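Deviation from plan, reported transparently: adenosine-5'-diphosphate complex.
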Amino acid sequence: MILGLMQTTPLLVSGILRYAASAHARREIVSRLIDEPLWRYDYAGLAARAAQAAHALAGLGVRSGDRVSSLAWNTHRHLELFYAVPGLGAVLHTANPRLSDEQIVFTINHAASSVLLFDRNFAELVARLAPRLTTVKTFVMLSDAERTHDAGVGAISYETLIAGQAQSFDWPTFDENAGAFLCYTSGTTGDPKGVLYSHRAVVLHAMAGGLASAFGLTAFDVVMPCSSLYHATAWGLPFTAPICGAKLVLPADKMDGASLHPLIQGEGVTFTGGVPTIWTMYLAYLEQTGQRPDSLKRVVIGGSAVPRAMAETFKTQYGVDVLQIWGMTETCPLGVIATPTPSLAALGEDALNDAIWTRQGRLQFGIELKVENEDGSEAPRDGETSGALKVRGPWVIQRYYRQESDAAEADGWFDTGDIATLDEHGFMRITDRQKDVIKSGGEWISSIDLENIAAGCPGVKIAAVIGVPHPKWEERPLMIIEAHEGAALGKAEVLNYLAPRIVKWWTPDDVVFAAVPLTATGKIDKKVLREAWRGHLMT
Ligand code: ADP
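Because the crystal trials were delayed, the predicted structure below was used instead.
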């Protein structure tokens, strides 16, 4: 081997901020806040305030390698922490407020953070948790001086803390493999597990996300992340947007249609993204009010499977393209993205739409994917054979935080826990999570496919399908429907809708109507459903 003779500049999060402040200094950032007026500044302003925050945190004793936790929504202050904390060489643990009290306490103690910065509407939560937070020494309320109260924990105001600090920071240079963000999985089984993103992973992931074959952002885009900043860094959009020079719009904690629509219209949002439940609410809002998202061009949806009907409605009624993505906390989180290819386009518009609307996405440079049969051999890429989905690459987990052994196999492959197929066009389709698959008479029924089809039935808000023990067939599908308010919908309507669209033996043995519980990351909580309906007698 002969070494290359190029520079070895480390890939650091601070490099993104420096770039945006110099190349896109005046590109705007707009943020909603908790009971404060809309905030406006730009990338130069972000750089100045992130520098102030870094000085202030250093003043609190935060050093390289230390952990700092946030409990915060999608706001400009949280964004400042995204740059200030890793910029210092410390690690930002973005605590997930939707976890249980026990789990939030567990994650902050496990991270051993010395500072907790929280939005004002978490004051009660923080007061409740504080006695059990064994490592936090300083509490900071992400609020202006007037509205800050000590919340019973001696909290100080973020604005007071950073006021008067220098507006530039000599960001240190260090190993690009240093930890930058600590994100915990939602812990549906056991304690949440920490995934520690390195600077290198965050930067490579953000660059890949901007490619035209992925999100395809340009400096003309106006990007509104509706995936939470605390959940796997909102798909890296806080980094991809500045790399591409896009305007950023941050909606704080309000993700309902009536709150999002004025932001989309008022700020000219072209690109947004979030979990399917947000877009179910948004489409219902548009339908009820007869309004249209004039500037919107693309919506990225992931975290759970996108119902085909949702993608179709966005396209046919509003001219908005839906890009489905698949990923997980362990993959930073982007894995695959559904964007068109010439080979699909050659099959005609219907086939193209069908692939884009029903597949999670296609192979992206940087993430290798394979589907494994039960005997460990690789499944053919025929779009039919399903098996265990494994991934590897520079933004895939090697080992969970503070665990002794690797989560990935020796050759890097990480088992995602998903069941999927791959096809000749490089498109991946998730058929189920390993633990959710329904085994009926020795065959598998895809709960995701059934849910997706049922989601297209008029009046259905959320459709969930679980396997319920059955004396003859081992398991049979039970469908739980949460209907839109006022919808006249019964079991017969749902079954009639399904009948021409599925093979007969997939027909749910029963359809019941109830609220569908969601997890901390907005997915259907099948564990709760299985427990609740375990003894349900099929009719
Ligand atoms: P959690 O902490 O709930 O596991 P993650 O966001 O890490 O949160 O969840 C990742 C999982 O979400 C994936 O393994 C997959 O099962 C599911 N998922 C993500 N995107 C999609 C999608 N587009 N379609 C179907 N399932 C998805």
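Residues 48 and 158 are 15 Å apart (CA to CA). We consider this an acceptable substitute for the interim report.
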